[in-house]
């Protein structure tokens, strides 16, 4: 063992520049590896914060309704009618109050109901598509990080009633 140790010390001490370059190369490689791992972890944390924490974990939508069988389908075997909406097709969740109370008894923790639709904003001959989301302010503050993102106004002012609207900084 002392002979192997003696040979190693002789090579390290005898080739000082080569040893220094090797040590610096390993240090830069390890530092770069640590920096990339930190960058990846930061990106993942930002992804979770931006997308996963702000998106609903449970989504309830209205049921798919099909129209009654049409007389042409009974008379002819080759007829297939698709895309027909029943006249009494009222969109929306049937009995939303019961669905909300069922969710309160089933889901541990907090939840807030929201209603979503698409809209168009027109301003000075420009049209921009917008997502319109209706919320209950007193419940939304318990599940959404939006309360900390206000630039002007406050989230509690929404609960005061009236036709209050929140718009993002891009839309503003």
Keywords:
172 residues, alpha+beta, two-stranded antiparallel ribbon, 5 helices, 41% helix, elongated
What do these coordinates show?
The structure is a single chain. The chain contains five helices and two strands. The protein is of the alpha+beta class. It folds into two domains: 2-52; 97-172, no CATH class. Strands 1-2 form a two-stranded antiparallel ribbon. The protein is elongated, with a radius of gyration of 31 Å.
Spans of at least 5 consecutive residues whose pLDDT stays below 50 are: none
Strand order of the largest sheet: 1-2
* Cα distance spanning the termini: 75 Å
Rounded average pLDDT? 81
Secondary structure topology:
Layout: H1 2-14, H2 16-52, H3 71-75, H4 96-106, E1 114-123, E2 126-135, H5 137-140
Antiparallel strand pairs: 1-2
């Amino acid at each position: 063992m002392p002979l192997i140790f003696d040979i190693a010390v002789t090579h390290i001490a005898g080739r000082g520049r080569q040893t220094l370059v090797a040590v610096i190369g390993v240090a830069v490689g390890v530092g770069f590896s640590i920096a990339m791992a930190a960058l990846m972890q930061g990106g993942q944390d930002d992804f979770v914060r931006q997308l996963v924490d702000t998106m609903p974990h449970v989504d309830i939508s209205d049921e798919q309704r099909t129209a009654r069988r049409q007389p042409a389908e009974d008379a002819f075997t080759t007829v297939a009618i698709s895309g027909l909406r029943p006249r009494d097709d009222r969109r929306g969740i049937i009995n939303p109050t019961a669905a909300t109370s069922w969710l309160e008894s089933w889901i541990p923790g907090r939840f807030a109901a929201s209603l979503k639709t698409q809209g168009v904003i027109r301003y000075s001959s420009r049209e921009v598509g917008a997502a319109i989301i209706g919320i209950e302010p007193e419940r939304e503050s318990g599940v959404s990080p939006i309360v900390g993102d206000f630039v002007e106004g406050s989230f509690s002012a929404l609960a005061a009633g009236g036709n209050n609207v929140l718009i993002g900084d891009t839309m503003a």
